[in-house]
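in:
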């Protein structure tokens, strides 16, 4: 079962009508701030694109044949 609850003063308040038996073990997963995560992803994307723009002379099939270029395995 999955529910969304609110924390107030370090106490988890369940929504109305939701009852959990005393002694029930629960797992709590905190929801991340989606706007902050999106902003971080955008910053990382921009940084990686900037690095990629600086790199010259890579083979056009690097993504598909990375094992060949990195580890010397035969091309697929």
């Amino acid at each position: 079962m999955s529910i969304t609850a609110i924390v107030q003063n370090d106490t988890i308040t369940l929504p109305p009508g939701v009852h959990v038996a005393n002694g029930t073990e629960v797992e709590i997963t905190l929801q991340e701030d989606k706007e902050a995560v999106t902003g971080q992803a955008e910053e990382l994307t921009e940084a990686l694109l900037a690095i990629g723009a600086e790199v010259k002379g890579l083979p056009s099939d690097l993504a598909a044949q990375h094992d060949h270029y990195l580890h010397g395995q035969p091309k697929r």
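note: The longest strand covers residues 6-8.
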